[in-house]
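Hi both,

Apologies for the delay on this - the queue was longer than expected. I finally got the zinc ion-bound model through. Below you'll find the protein sequence and the ligand SMILES exactly as submitted, and right after that the structure tokens for the full complex including the ligand.
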Amino acid sequence: MFFVLLCANITVQAKSLALSFDDGLNPAFNVQAEQINAQILKHLHDQQIKSIVFPSLIKIGDYQGKQLIQAWGQSSHLIGNHSALHQNLNKENVSAKDYIKSIEQADTVLKTLPNYTRIYRYPFLKEGNNAEKRDAVYQWLAQHQYRIGGVSIDASDWFYNQKYLDYAKQQDQDKLDRLKQAYIAHLLHRADYYDQLAQLTINPSPQHVLLLHVNAINAAFLKDVITAFQQRGWTFISAADALQDPLYTQHSQNIPAGESVIWSIAKTKGLEHLRYPAEDAPYEIDNLKQHGLQ
Ligand SMILES: [Zn+2]
């Protein structure tokens, strides 16, 4: 019996995962900002998971929003940089010069916070629509001792958050319950998709980083999300550890550059039938239908 169990264990590839949270909230525009922020921190504390938050100044606003980010550092999570203006580097009208200025501006404001670290996450995961811009920013980051806060598993929590806010407003508990299951299924599905893509391209499975946001749906459901991943054999690791994976130091060879690092490598290698990188709403219709939400 023992022997059988041992063999079964060997055949299961260990999959590890870190959580990262983008943007942050501005209490001036979101009355629930403080509560959402605190609830997410509580879930992480209860599950003993160390994460990283990537605030963008335009998303957090002034003093109050910065206070919420400070709480992440005080709870031993890392604080990274997600720029001041949250610009899309793939847009024609965004120059490398302005873009870099926006990274510097955020650095000036955020570096006073505890556990601030020079790790940069590109807004929208866009790393440049031409080689000059792409390489100018890579070069600036390297020269300023910045690492890239890459993502291996891209997901659409922003889409499910919109549904969550609608159903919460309607006080529709049945729909909220269904949505929780749909959201968990969505995240597990994305994780499996990118892990399989990793096995096709960079085998073995890397130390994954999942992209989430500081938002209401994660405040409500994160505990159940974490449990569901654990039940499916995923182990949670700290974001600091995951981002040590050499996978995240690689520069994209593609134009346009960016997206999930695994997707980007698959694209460079010429893998066919890759899904469109933008994690868009049409992908979610079937999942919503399966959970009785369409
Ligand atoms: Zn963002």
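Main takeaway for now: The beta strands are 15-23, 52-55, 78-81, 116-120, 126-128, 147-148, 207-213, 234-236, 257-258.

I'll put the files on the shared drive as well.

H.
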